[in-house]
């Protein structure tokens, strides 16, 4: 069971991320300031860190600098409202394994967490493709193919297909898909999951995802 350190000062977001990770079998620990986050990260007790940049105490860039120097094997995913190219480049060149800007979809964050945890010692991932039958997604280029043909998916369609493929063989309820793909502002009464499943079937083939009556959807 992987242990994940979440360094985030906005309680609504840290609670949302921790709840989602716990539901997926991870063991999250939340701290709300940079100094405490750095202390925890340097203990060596965590397998991955999710790090905000705008933190009280010391900012995320300073935390990242120390962690990269003293715990270089710890993969760090930066999750921040700062989405400039300068910030992204600074974080990646500073040692972050990945960078996501807010608002974000939990499903995409989860996929990136799993991808980084499969990487040896926080380095390059072992695999960046997800596949089922003739459907293949490349997580790095964000491209989808059916057989040899590239298929254009919207960002939301790609995220939904990604979550289904990451959890291949498992039945995912509409509520799980809403939470993971549409994020913490989703409407639990919405039928938007069914609508987007229809979009995926049109683009990726009707056999791509099966309906499990009364339970949800599954990709084999």
Automatic annotation (TrEMBL):
Keyword Ligase listed: no
Pfam families tied to this protein: Response_reg, Trans_reg_C
DNA-binding region: 127-220
UniProt keyword annotation of Acetylation present: no
UniProt domain Response regulatory: residue ranges: 3-117
PROSITE patterns reported for this sequence: OMPR_PHOB, RESPONSE_REGULATORY
GO molecular function per UniProt: DNA binding
Domain of life: Bacteria
Residues found modified as 4-aspartylphosphate: 52
Keywords: DNA-binding, Phosphoprotein
Ranges in a coiled coil: none
Domain OmpR/PhoB-type residues, every copy: 127-220
Name of the protein in its database record: DNA-binding response OmpR family regulator
Originating species: Aeromicrobium panaciterrae
């Amino acid at each position: 069971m992987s242990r994940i350190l979440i360094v985030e000062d906005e309680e609504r977001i840290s609670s949302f991320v921790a709840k989602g990770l716990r539901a997926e079998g991870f063991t999250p620990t939340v701290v709300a300031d940079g100094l405490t986050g750095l202390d925890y990260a340097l203990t060596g007790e965590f397998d991955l860190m999710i790090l905000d940049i705008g933190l009280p105490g010391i900012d995320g860039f300073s935390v990242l600098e120390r962690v990269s120097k003293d715990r270089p094997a710890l993969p760090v995913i930066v999750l921040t409202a700062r989405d400039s190219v300068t910030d992204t480049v600074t974080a990646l060149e500073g040692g972050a394994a990945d960078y996501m800007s807010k608002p974000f979809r939990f499903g995409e964050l989860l996929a990136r967490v799993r991808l980084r945890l499969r990487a040896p010692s926080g380095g390059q991932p072992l695999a960046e493709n997800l596949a089922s039958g003739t459907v293949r997604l490349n997580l790095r280029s964000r491209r989808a193919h059916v057989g040899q043909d590239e298929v254009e998916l919207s960002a939301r369609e790609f995220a939904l297909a990604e979550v289904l493929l990451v959890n291949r063989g498992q039945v995912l309820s509409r509520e799980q898909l809403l939470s993971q793909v549409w994020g913490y502002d989703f409407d639990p009464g919405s039928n938007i999951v069914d609508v987007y499943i229809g979009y995926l079937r049109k683009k990726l083939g009707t056999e791509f995802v099966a309906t499990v009556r009364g339970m949800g959807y599954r990709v084999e």
